[in-house]
Write a structure and sequence with these properties.
Elements lengths: L11 E6 L3 H4 L1 H11 L7 H9 L4 E5 L1 E3 L4 E3 L1 H9 L5 E6 L7 H10 L5 E4 L1 H4 L6 H13 L3 E3 L20 H6 L5 E3 L7 H10 L3 E4 L7 H13 L6 E2 L9 H9 L15 H9 L12
Helix pairs in contact: 5-7
């Protein structure tokens, strides 16, 4: 194959955060830090150095979880993304409990340039089938705006794990078969359910963000993805600041390093390389192919 026709290899970080301390509040920053044991510095300066300085393209995520008092404004994230035109793609943060949530969503897409919508039933405290959220799915489907789900475990004591099982997304995927969606963190701890959803609904994807340093969990998720032939729907992401982009790459590449005397079936190096460098933005946004 000639260089002219060879597919372009790009490192895309599909899951990164950028915020200021006041966007989380002191109590949430303290709880996040103590329970995850990871960095909570997602300042623009840190993001420029540790994400934008490494990845060729990246996703930036805004958040609005009224229940926790967390608000990373869409305007703030949009301003940061403007520094990286052509490289950054944004998911707007909307809390469906807000009466004007549809207006916020339309403004984020039409005025601020967001290309996706971030939801967390666990952190925001709503059932995924609730009509206050369903109205936003209908808009996302109309706008062809993908949804990123934190449909997984949560650190905050106020979080609502009863809303977190990824199986609850099956009804939404059936209702909107053309709406592309990402389940963050392989939906952990429900990784088996997530993989089954990927097989059932080919418009669904998942990212491995914040899983590489949980090696056993990440390893099992990848083995299940191989077994169910859904590895093409698995995306690389760091969940910065939980890991920076390079640290996530390095720990992903070390997934088979179990130590002396331990023999485990290997995650193929070719698959790791494929996930790192062959997941173009066109999977979610055909116009960005």
């Amino acid at each position: 194959m000639s260089d002219r026709t060879a597919p372009r290899r790009e490192l895309i970080d599909w899951h990164t955060n950028v915020w200021l301390p006041e966007h989380l509040g002191e109590a949430q920053r303290s709880e996040m830090s103590s329970k995850t044991g990871r960095s909570v510095d997602a300042s623009p300066e840190a993001h420029r150095r540790l994400v934008a300085g490494v990845a060729e393209k990246f996703i930036c995520i805004a958040m609005k979880w009224n229940r926790l008092g967390i608000h990373v404004p869409n305007e703030f994230v949009a301003e940061y993304m403007a520094e990286h035109k052509g490289r950054a793609v944004g998911f707007a943060g909307i809390d469906p409990h807000d009466d004007d949530a549809p207006k916020q969503f339309e403004h984020a897409v039409a005025r601020l340039g967001f290309r996706g919508l971030k939801f967390s039933p666990v952190y925001a405290g709503f059932h995924p089938w609730d009509e206050i959220a369903w109205r936003l799915y209908e808009m996302a489907n109309e706008f062809k705006t993908p949804i990123l789900w934190h449909q997984a475990a949560a650190y905050a004591k106020e979080s609502t794990l009863e809303n977190g099982n990824p199986i609850l997304l099956d009804k939404i995927a059936r209702a909107f078969p053309e709406l592309r969606m990402i389940i963050a963190h392989v939906g952990q701890p429900w990784i088996g359910e997530t993989v089954l959803l990927l097989r059932k609904h080919r418009q669904l994807f998942t990212d491995l963000s914040a899983r590489y340093y949980r090696r056993w969990q990440c390893y099992n998720a990848l083995m299940l993805a191989i077994d169910y032939d859904v590895t093409g729907q698995v995306l690389f992401g760091s969940d910065f600041p939980i890991q920076d982009t390079q640290a996530a790459v390095d720990s992903f590449r070390a997934i088979n390093d179990w130590g002396e005397g331990v023999s485990m079936p290997r995650i193929p190096d070719a698959l790791i390389d494929d996930i790192l460098y062959n997941r173009p933005l066109g999977l979610l946004w055909p116009d960005l192919a």
